[in-house]
Structure formats: C-alpha cells, structure tokens
C-alpha cells in the first residue's frame, strides 16, 4: 500500500496554475525524486502533500490518511528536511533536537536517549553542546537531517537537501540517505543535482509548469529520451563545425554558449572527425541531466 498517493492534484495562485493535475504514488521503502526547474511546482507539491496548504482540487493520502483533513496525525510518522535551514539559533545542537522532539509528544527521557544516536548518524557526536552559530553549512544541513529523524519517521520529505554544500558534505549526506533507505525508510527528494537523483532514486518524475512531463527510473528515462553517447565540443570555430559536418555525423546537435553537444548512438565517425581538428572534446555516456535539459530547455529560470 502506498505511503503517499496523489490524484489529479491542482493548485493556483493569482490565476496561475502552479500544480496542474499531478498524480503519483510512492511505495514503502522507495526513494522518489521530484525534479524540475525553478518555478516548476515542486515545493508547492510537497507543501500540499504535507497538508500545509489546501489544494484547489484532487486528493492526497499520506500514511493512509486523507490530507489536509487528517494531516496532523499523518505527519507524526513523517520527517521533513526543508529547503532552507530553520534551526533555532538560541539553542545548542542538542537542544534543537530536544525541543523539536517535544512537538511530537515524545517523552523527554526517550528524546534524550535518541539524541546521541542521531548526532552520531549526522557526524556531530562531539558537537551536542555547540551553539548553532559555530556550525558550518554542511554541519547545519546534517543537523537538519538528524532533526527530521527525531520521531523515527517512516517517510521523509527532503527539499533540496544538499544545495550549497561542498562535494565532501554532499557525499556524506548521500551516504546517510542510502543508510536510511537500507533501513526501509521512504524518501521523497527534490533536487537540482541530477547526479544525486541518479545515485539515490529508484524512480523520478520531471515536473515543469505544474505538470509531470515524464516519469520512470533514471536509466529508463535516459534510454527513452536520449541517444546513448554524448560528445561535448569546445574551441575556435566550433559553431561552424556544428552547423556543417557535425549535423551529418550526430543524430542531434545542440549549441549552448561556446559548447556544442552532439548526441549519437554510434560516436565512431564523430570522434574520427574531431581527431582531425583543433577542437577540444569530451566523450561521455548520456545521463539524467541530458534528459532534464532536453525536456525542460537550457534557458535560465529565475
């Protein structure tokens, strides 16, 4: 039975439909990724699922309870890592966990027993008495993750959990999320890092302008939408090469700034052509970012 089931969900603001008939279901133990450019409707969808705002139409069942009507008891079994850290600066690391645990009605003795394990999980075992202001950005993000686990949730919503982190902190959080999945937790993840989605998600949906435009496993989406080989080309007169010879050698050619992207099922002739030219190039397998950019475009979104 799905831990989260959404059917024909709609929400508008100021006459603009932000969520436009979205439907999906998430199985226990699954990591489901919700991808999309800025303004696609991802965060609004999460807020609707948590019962923080009311839909205009459609239905939501969270932990087998109707939302928003039964959102409060449903959220007892849910953890949330918000897009922006909202730790209390007046409390220490340990006090942030203690106070947050009280919101769930957990006995204080039980909360205090859980805190050392959660701080160990977050790599913050030695920082229980530290003021929040002394933590790095990565430490704050890991503490926010630990706080989301204080009620031992079955389902965890994570809204861009690694944005702004350096690679070391990002990889540490990825390892922690894999541990949670191995424990049978269910994760709903929004992210702008396609590598993150490929590493963690069993299934992803790409959302744009309030609608799901594709859904499936990362590997399925790559196979469905993109040629298997990508050659990125840079250098003087790359535009001239792209408008001429490249189009006869690749199935699809895209230009973005001073880079030309060539997509092909068989790169041999394309690579042979490049070996005769003073152009720099990178040959790589297609990935989820290629799918994302093909379906949502390369233009900047604010």
Topology:
Blueprint: E1 4-13, E2 16-26, E3 31-35, H1 42-49, E4 57-62, E5 65-67, H2 71-75, E6 78-81, H3 93-102, H4 108-121, H5 137-148, E7 155-159, H6 167-182, E8 186-190, H7 194-200, E9 203-208, E10 211-216, H8 218-225, E11 229-234, H9 238-249, E12 252-256, E13 259-264, H10 268-275, E14 280-285, H11 288-296
Parallel strand pairs: 3-8, 3-9, 6-7, 7-8
Antiparallel strand pairs: 1-2, 1-4, 4-5, 9-10, 11-13, 11-14, 12-13
Helix pairs in contact: 3-4, 8-11
Give a short synopsis of this structure:
The chain has 302 residues and is of the alpha/beta class.
Task: Write out key terms for the chains shown.
single chain, 302 residues, alpha/beta, Rossmann fold, 2 domains, six-stranded mixed sheet, four-stranded antiparallel sheet, 11 helices, 14 strands
Description:
This protein has 302 residues and is of the alpha/beta class. The protein has two domains: 4-217, P-loop containing nucleotide triphosphate hydrolases (Rossmann fold); 227-285. The chain is 36% helix and 28% strand. It is built from eleven helices and 14 strands. The chain has helices at residues 42-49, 71-75, 93-102, 108-121, 137-148, 167-182, 194-200, 218-225, 238-249, 268-275, 288-296, and strands at residues 4-13, 16-26, 31-35, 57-62, 65-67, 78-81, 155-159, 186-190, 203-208, 211-216, 229-234, 252-256, 259-264, 280-285. The strands form three sheets. A six-stranded mixed β-sheet has the order 6-7-8-3-9-10, with helices on both faces. It has a four-stranded antiparallel β-sheet with strand order 2-1-4-5. Helix 3 crosses helix 4 and helix 8 crosses helix 11 (288-296). 36% of the residues are buried.
């Amino acid at each position: 039975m799905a831990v989260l089931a959404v059917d024909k969900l709609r929400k508008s603001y100021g006459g603009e439909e932000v969520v436009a008939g979205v439907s999906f279901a998430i199985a226990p133990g699954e990591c489901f990724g919700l991808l999309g450019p800025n303004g696609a409707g991802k965060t609004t969808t999460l807020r609707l699922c948590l019962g923080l705002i009311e839909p205009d139409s459609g239905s939501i069942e969270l932990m087998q309870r109707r939302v928003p009507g039964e959102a409060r008891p449903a959220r007892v079994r849910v953890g949330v890592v918000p897009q922006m850290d909202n730790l209390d600066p007046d409390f220490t690391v340990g006090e942030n966990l203690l106070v947050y645990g009280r919101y769930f009605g957990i006995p204080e003795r039980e909360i205090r027993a859980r805190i050392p394990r959660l701080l160990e999980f977050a790599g913050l075992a030695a920082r229980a008495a530290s003021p929040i202001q002394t933590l790095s950005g990565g430490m704050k993000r890991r503490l926010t993750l630990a706080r989301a686990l204080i009620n031992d949730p079955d389902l965890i919503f994570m809204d861009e959990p690694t944005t702004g982190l350096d690679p070391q902190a990002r990889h540490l959080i990825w390892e922690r999320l894999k541990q949670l999945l191995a424990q049978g937790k269910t994760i709903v993840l929004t992210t702008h890092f396609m590598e993150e989605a490929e590493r963690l998600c069993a299934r992803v949906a790409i959302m744009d302008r309030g609608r799901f435009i594709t859904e499936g496993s990362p590997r399925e989406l790559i196979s469905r939408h993109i040629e298997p080989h990508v050659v990125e080309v840079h250098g003087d007169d790359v535009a001239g090469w792209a408008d001429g010879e490249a189009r006869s050698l690749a199935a699809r050619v895209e230009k973005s700034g001073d880079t030309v992207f060539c997509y092909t099922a068989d790169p041999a002739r394309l690579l042979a052509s490049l070996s005769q030219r003073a152009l720099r190039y990178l040959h790589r397998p297609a990935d989820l970012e290629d799918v994302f950019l093909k379906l949502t475009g390369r233009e900047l979104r604010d």
